[in-house]
Design a protein that fits this description.
GO molecular function, one term: alpha-(1->3)-fucosyltransferase activity
Number of strands: 12
Distance between the termini: 52 Å
Structural class: alpha/beta
Radius of gyration: 23 Å
Strand content: 5-15%
Pfam families: Glyco_transf_10
Membrane topology: Single-pass type II membrane protein
Main location: Golgi
Subcellular location: Golgi apparatus, Golgi stack membrane
């Protein structure tokens, strides 16, 4: 009873954020074209072809090539508009920002305290425009840093001229600067430095094998071990409508935790596997992956979506309202575009039995990247050292005036 009252209070206060499922179902629930044209492709005629359960991807791709093809797909989306301001530009290789002749510059960043920032970012970078960048967690490797990067700890309250610049990173949905940093790194384009959840640095040391065969008995993969009430409720309601496997602690229906290798032993990487090292390989066996963000807010597009794309599956996504600024056209199924979860489930089932339509959700990787996606990858953690060093250099590093 107490829990029910608390949930009601949270709902009324707006503390829990659910996707709206009351909007009308568009012609193509994958995205809305800013300037729609008359070109129709396979996703516009779902339900008109004879249902044909399939498992192998390559024959599905061949069917799509013969019936639609990259030329027609490209024409359909040539007028597709995205908000380019949702993603920062690197500026590193921009000729307008480079001096044709000038002294070479070197900037060093020391990562302070405990942090999840991966060790594989350690090293020396050649960043273009005559800039080199040293990045390390070791005070021996960098004894006179130009900047101190904090992620799990608060920067010093004060800074004097001659001290390193204070940098603070927060990629959580709340995105809260401390008020003591000179440079703030977040996931939004309005932050001093933007970092997206795309890229390899968020998930190194994993089995990236992609299965060429999809299951046709189980449509949807879901894995979550942080059982947030609002996300769990949405997942439970949707998954009850489709054949699915849930591998995490939340809504588990596969007989317990760490069952992925029982189903897919070919995904093992070592004799002592950890669940995340075979995550991509396991989800690649499914046509669809349910991806629900913790919070639905602009530009907060996390690894939940990018994992599915990289695994060769189609994400069924609930999250950032501007998600299409971060992904290629026709690469995901946007759950918020459906009038109900029942309509969404029906659509997913139809796509899952239509090899031509399903293949079209993979056209972005076969025909070339459209939209902002190349910039989303470029703004990932992979490129953070050079981008941060460039900004530190621009602001003068240790010689910057007391801020």
């Amino acid at each position: 009873m107490v829990a029910s009252v608390l949930l009601l209070v949270l709902l009324l206060s707006g503390s829990l954020e659910f996707p709206s499922l009351s909007s009308p179902l568009p012609l193509s629930p994958t995205l809305s074209l800013s300037n729609p044209n008359t070109i129709s492709t396979a996703v516009d005629s779902i339900g008109t072809r004879t249902s044909h359960p399939f498992r192998e991807l390559l024959p599905a791709f061949s069917k799509w090539d013969s019936q639609v093809g990259c030329g027609k797909f490209g024409q359909k989306f040539e007028s597709w508009k995205v908000n380019s301001s949702a993603i920062q530009g690197t500026g590193i290789q921009d000729g307008d920002t480079c001096q044709k002749e000038g002294p070479r510059r070197h900037v060093s960043v020391l990562v302070k305290g405990w942090t999840w920032i991966p060790d594989n970012l350690e090293g020396i970078y050649s960043c273009g425009c005559g800039l080199s960048c040293a990045w390390s967690k070791s005070p021996v490797a960098i004894d006179r840093p130009d900047a101190l990067l904090f992620e799990g700890a608060t920067p010093p309250r004060t800074r004097r001229t001659g001290d390193p610049l204070r940098v603070y990173l927060d990629l959580e949905a709340s995105r809260k600067p401390t008020g003591f940093e000179d440079i703030f790194i977040g996931y939004h384009a309005s932050d001093d430095v933007q970092v997206t959840y795309a890229g390899k640095s968020f998930h190194i040391g994993r089995n990236y094998r992609i299965s060429p065969v999809k299951r046709d008995d189980i449509l949807v993969y879901w894995s979550s071990s942080r059982c947030l009430p609002q996300r769990n409720d949405l997942a439970r309601r949707f998954l009850s409508l489709v054949p699915h496997h849930s591998f995490g602690k939340c809504l588990n229906n596969v007989g317990g935790l760490d069952q992925s290798l029982v189903f897919y032993p070919d995904c093992a990487m070592s004799k002592s596997p950890i669940w995340w090292d075979h995550l991509h390989c396991a989800m690649s066996h499914y046509k669809f992956v349910l991806a629900i963000e913790n919070t639905f807010t602009d530009s907060y597009v996390t690894e939940k979506l990018f994992y599915a794309l990289e695994a060769g599956s189609v994400p069924i996504y609930f999250g950032a309202p501007n998600v299409w600024d971060f992904v290629p056209p026709n690469s995901i199924i946007d759950g918020s575009k459906f009038g109900s979860l029942e309509e969404l489930a029906s659509y997913v089932k139809k796509v899952g039995e239509d090899p031509v339509a399903y293949a079209e959700f993979h056209a972005w990787r076969r025909c070339g990247i459209l939209g902002n996606y190349w910039r989303v990858r470029e703004m990932s953690l992979d490129t953070l050292p050079c981008r941060l060093c460039q900004l530190v250099a621009t602001r003068g590093g240790r010689n910057a005036r007391d801020l």
